[in-house]
Write a structure and sequence with these properties.
A 7-stranded mixed β-sheet has the order 1-2-3-7-6-5-4, covered by helices on one side. The protein has 3 helices and 11 strands; from the N terminus they run βββββββαββαββα. It is α+β, with helices and mostly antiparallel strands. A hairpin with a 2-residue loop joins strand 8 and strand 9.
């Protein structure tokens, strides 16, 4: 069951400029994440993503109430109930910060809310969720994209989240699929790699 964890901002802090909706949550973020669907302006935050300095420490620290993660080339991330703090490395673009933020960092934030989050892809097939689970690089996203090409709808890629008790509910994520150049060419995705190149 999803826990109600409403984050709070200090009265002196400015509200994050960006508002998004995913996995049944409203996210207010200092980091622009244009791949996410926008939330309504009046929706209050279920999850805050704030850009703030974090103290140096080990590359990872895990406890039930807080997780600290660090990547040399990206920066530091702290995940607490209802709050993600991001401390990017000097000169790192927001595009690069978004990779771990919308991957392992988001998965931890979903887990802290009581959701079952796992590495997979999910597609809506005839009104029911079909989930593809496998090791990295095996073809989950490629399979999901092939199903999209056949007219089915994307629910989530990379992170699938389930809520509900006793009946699990597959929560929709955001419309983005991560594909290799080879998969783009094979599937002939518009705007993807040239199918004739390097075949």
């Amino acid at each position: 069951m999803m826990q109600a964890l409403a984050p709070r901002l200090d009265e002196t802090e400015a509200q994050p400029a960006h508002r998004y909706s995913l996995y049944g949550l409203t996210v207010h973020s200092d980091v622009p994440l244009p791949e996410l669907p926008p939330a309504t302006a009046e929706a209050s935050a279920d999850l805050l993503i704030l850009r703030r300095p974090l103290p140096e420490g080990p590359h990872g620290r895990f406890s039930p109430a807080r997780v600290d993660l660090f990547w040399d080339t990206v920066g530091r991330f702290r995940v607490e109930p209802g709050l993600v703090t991001v401390d990017p490395a000097p000169g790192v673009s927001d595009d690069l910060v978004a990779f771990p933020l919308l991957g392992p960092v988001l998965a931890l934030a979903l887990h802290q809310r009581g959701l079952f989050a796992f590495h997979a892809s999910a597609v809506s097939v005839n009104g029911r969720g079909a989930v593809m689970m496998a090791d990295k690089g095996v073809g989950k996203s490629t399979t999901a994209t092939a199903l999209l090409s056949a007219g089915h709808g994307l629910l989530a890629d990379d992170i699938v989240a389930l809520s509900g008790d006793p009946q699990p509910i597959l929560l929709p994520g955001f419309a983005q699929v991560k594909l290799s150049d080879a998969s783009l060419a094979r599937l002939k995705v518009p705007g993807g790699a040239d199918p004739a190149a390097g075949a």
